[in-house]
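Late entry, written up from scratch paper. The run itself happened at the end of the previous shift, but nothing got recorded in the book at the time, so transcribing now.
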Amino acid sequence: MRHLRTALALVVAIGSTQAFAQPSATQKLRVAVMDLSGSALKMQQATSGLGGGMPGVQTTTTIALPAPAEFARGLTEMLGTVLIKTGRFTVLERAAMVQIDQEQALAAAGKTTKETGAKTGAILGAQLMITGDITGFAYAKSSIGGKMANVLKGLTVTTERVTAQVVIDLRLVDPSTSELIFSAKGEGKASQTGVAADLTKGDKSWGGGGSTSTPLGEASRDALASAVKALMVGMPKIAWTGRVIDVRDGVVYVNATAVDGMKPGLALLVYEQQPALIDPETGKALGAPERQVGTIVIDKVLEKFSTAKVTAGDSVTRGHVLRFKAP
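Output as recorded:
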């Protein structure tokens, strides 16, 4: 539990850091957390011993343990939790991401109208996508023991040590251009030692679950917290943006609340995103220019959205991008 407490304390420290610059200390960036891949998740097994089982002779056996089932998926969910605990990110729900993927597929197939179709790359208005890989993984059990003289017949006294090491590389990606913005690495280690007495003719089974109370769980938490801290300290400044949810009877509905810095009287600039610029030689998306179409002023801040009125321009509509006015 010591490692788990350390990891959680690190998460709290991340939440209070001022290294991640934003227009306001309370504004959150919307991020889509993609599944972590697991290039290092390969089972390896090695056994070494000393002695031949004679009374008083000690043997050492080390066995590499495989990663639990769905280990990479579990780390992805843990990553989302760590990001939320920082107080600096709004993590998009996985179920909603699956739904938007389906909507994007329909739009790409021409089965929806241009206005209602989901735009590829704009995952639920995510400002950033976070992806990554489990690049380091070591999980092993070592047993040190042997038959002891003048002890109960058939009894073996064994000292066991379970160790775990997890290395995670996280990458920040611009969802509109697929450009890599920043990457960071985090590493976690944990171990646990105990004593067990087992009959020599019996085999002791060890369950390698993914619980946070196990060495593997603690190492995973430490690695994730370390990687997220490195991201927040080193990543470039990302300007906050919001979106127009809808415009009804002159009322503009905004997908931002108090935690995003919304307050009555706040003026926001409204932009229309133009078609993406594609390099004719490389085919790479270079981003999309924006055209200012108006200004709105927030009048009410509610729990899940805010409302505003148009003060300049007459073409504000659903999906338009919102930005703070320069001071």
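Helices lie at 2-16, 71-85, 94-108, 215-234.
(Scratch paper discarded after transcription.)
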